[in-house]
Amino acid sequence: MSYTIRYTQGTRAEREAAAMKDVHGWLGDRFGLVEQKLQEFWNGPGSRKQRLNGLYLGLEFAGVRGLPARAMIRRILCKAKPS
User: Fold this and answer.
1) How many CA atoms lie within 13 A of 30 on its CB side?
2) 36 with 28: CB under 8 angstroms?
3) Which of 4, 52, 66, 74: CA 20 to 30 A from 82?
4) What pLDDT digit, counting tens, does each position of 34-77 carry?
């Protein structure tokens, strides 16, 4: 995202919810597609570390970093199939 937001108010869940709202606003109609592609990547081959780094890189390409990226990755990991 091309601007800086400080997520310092509220609980971790509240901060992550605010970050996810910002990610959704930033990606707009592409949110579902980006989430789907990152989920497919996570369920693919490679070590956990390689796949996690790939998720961060993919979000960086989409312009998402920091807490919003971590919140998005937590969302993807919660939906992931057991490995």
Assistant:
1) 11
2) no
3) 66
4) 999 999 999 999 999 999 999 999 999 999 999 999 999 999 99
